[in-house]
Amino acid sequence: MKVVLQNLTKVFPSRDKKSKDDVIAVNDFNFEIPDGKLIGLLGPSGCGKSTALNLISGLLRPTSGKVFFGDDDVTDLPPENRGVGLVFQSYALYPHLTVRQNIMFPLQNLKGTARLSREEIDRRVLEAAKLVQIEGLMERKPGEMSGGQQQRVAIARAVVKMPRVLLLDEPLSNLDARLRLQTREEIRRIQRDTGITTVFVTHDQEEAMSISDMIVVMKDGVVHQIGKPQQVYDDPVNLFVSKFLGTPPINVFEGRVKGGALFIGDERVLDVPGAPDGPVWAGIRPEGFIPQADGPFTCALSGVEVMGRDVSVVCRHPACASAQIRAIVSSEIRLPEGATSVRFSLKPHKVFLFERDGEARIRLAGAKG
Amino acid sequence: MNKENNLKGWLYLLPALLFLGFFMVYPLVDVFVYSFEEGYNSASQTFFGVGLYNYAYVLHDPYFLQALKNTFILVIITVPLSTVIALVISVGLNSIAPLKKLYQTVYFLPYVTNTLAVGLVFMILFKKTAYTDGLANLVLAWFGRGPVDFIDGPYWAKMFVLCFYTIWVVLPFKILILTSALAGVNQDYYNAAKVDGTSAWRIFYKITLPMISPMIFYLVITGFIGAFKAYSDAVALFGTNLNAAEMNTIVGYVYDMLYGDSGGYPSYASAAAIILFAVVFTITMINLSISKKNVHY
Q1: Mean pLDDT in chain B?
Q2: Which of B39, B234, B251, B269 could be disulfide-bonded to B48 (CB atoms 3.0-4.6 Å)?
Q3: CATH number of residue B136's parent domain
Q4: Is residue B17 part of a domain?
Q5: Any CB–CB contact under 8 A between A142 and chain B?
Q6: How many domains does chain B have?
């Protein structure tokens, strides 16, 4: 079931009626989620991701705009009639019910012609439990289970009624690092097995990049970029998106374009054909640095961190917007002992230019971007 | 070292232990002892013998049996009724947004009002005098009934007023506890239920009720104990001569045996008090065992 958001806007009126500080949590969303795909809604805390999710679920009514499931306009439908499964950040498992009773709960709500027989309910519950691999824990109460197991139960409860759309609100934020890795693979597998169109909300870009078919990057209620994870990473539309994706984060420099070349400090570091003259932000991905004895870009060396396969070279530069520059280079490259500075050449496709005001991407002439 | 620390610990506890010992444990033990001393005279501090005569006397005293009956009726009617009414009002309060604060205050006012003053008001509402039949009878008259003298009239009318009054007095505290318990239930549970299309009744029965069940049982247990110890309510409504009004309670009987016009019998009073203790203890134990089975997490 594809999901279409059309001019979707949600405004929360300010508590204080006199002031006019209404909060626009979701501002004019227009995008389509293709059938059977896994979509990551990504953005920093408070950017309106959960509000967007709740607009899709129907728990919130939009101020304006429409939501379609397939060709059906569901904007005015209450959540129970939309056929959505929702997994809460807190899981919201009923603590007084066993796992079986929790998963069964949505099915027991069905009435009239949709009503299921006892056998049918038992069969579907077992099926859902098997899908998330908790069929051995059916008589436990949520309090007697680990966070990861509770998470699975919550997913089972959401998929047992075979929803048209599955929504996950920060599904991994309560898990420890190792479990988070495991569970995100698990979510990916469950989504593939069931083929349910899935939207999940996260502030963790790594999480979103690793399992989504498509990511939606948003900030302050506004969608900044939509696309395949790798595509968004390789071709960010503005400074915010470039900074938000990637660990370690992109290195941002105050630069200047003059005569088709990028200058950082006094050094002419890269040819940028087609870029207009003037001050710019230059974003360089950590993997965009190549240490080279005669490279054009000189940084003061702070230290080298060996991380097994890669080496992280930590440097400083007066034009850098942050205190540290982090370059990821292959461990086969050796820096001279006792060096106080290091020279780099730059990979052109790992360097992005943004306008100093407005922070929009400056496209270069030529093949890329 | 360890032993010294132990001694120090006891030393620090000493003030509390002394207070508790003097004012809680000693009187309890003393009441127990009195209840077995036959013909105890508080002036001469003498008694004839030791035995169960005090209990036999109390259990054959028609006044005590009347008080026992009154207390049980009061408990059985007011505890469940007040808890259910409080639950209904709390759920109502919790589901309205405007004026919620105002209503909460209104419902809580009786709690901070003096029992005897409220009793007087109730007396005016229900009492039939030579000049007026009272407000309650006015209402009854609309339905073509009455007038009934609720204060000096038939037994059931007086019991009705006592129960009505008791429920009214205990409601504020129960509403306070239940509204805060309801407000403490995570909104996610309700959202999850809503997304799953759960009916309002099923949400209440399957989610709300289990979630606040610990608080409900707390109210039932303390409600039982409070109702068994009722006394001032009856005095406020029917005056101090409760035996004549057939409205005495067990605590009232104990008081009468000590200080009433026919009083001065600490042994009988002690025996009655011990019987009350046994009753309350038994009921509380039953309550706890039921709650263990039914109160979730």
Answers
A1: 85
A2: B39
A3: 1.10.3720.10
A4: no
A5: no
A6: 1
Q: What is the ipTM of this complex?
A: 0.80
What range does the domain containing B103 cover? 55-294
Class of domain A3-240: alpha beta
The Cα–Cα gap between B145 and A148 comes to 67
Banded pLDDT at A251 (limits 50, 70, 90): very high
Nearest to B191 among A59, A85, A143 (CB): A59
Q: Residue B149: what are its φ and ψ, rounded to 5°?
A: -90, 105
Q: Which helix (H) or strand (E) holds A301?
A: strand A297-307
The total number of residues shown for chain A amounts to 369
With respect to residue B9, please indicate whether it lies within any of the assigned structural domains: no
**What is the pTM for the complete model shown?**
0.78
Please give, rounded to a whole number of angstroms, the shortest distance from the CA of A66 to a CA of chain B: 19
> Which residue among A59, A85, A92 sits closest to B189, beta carbon to beta carbon?
A92
How far is it, in rounded angstroms, from Cα B266 to Cα B127? 35
Three-state SS at B92? helix
The CB-based long-range contact list for B229-232 (8 Å cut-off, 24+ gap) reads B229/B276, B229/B280, B230/B71, B230/B74, B230/B166, B231/B255, B232/B115, B232/B116
Q: Which of A82, A102, A109 to mutate to test the interface with B (most CBs of B within 10 A)?
A: A109
Domain contains B25: no
The answer, yes or no, to whether residue B297 has pLDDT greater than 60, is no
Cβ-defined contact of A109 to B199 (cutoff 8 Å): yes
**Per residue in A294-347, pLDDT tens?**
889 999 988 888 877 788 899 999 888 888 899 998 877 777 777 888 899 999
| A79/B194 touch (CB, cutoff 8 Å), yes or no | yes
Sorted by where each begins, the domain ranges of chain A are 3-240, 241-362
Q: Which amino acid is at A256?
A: R
B109: in domain: yes
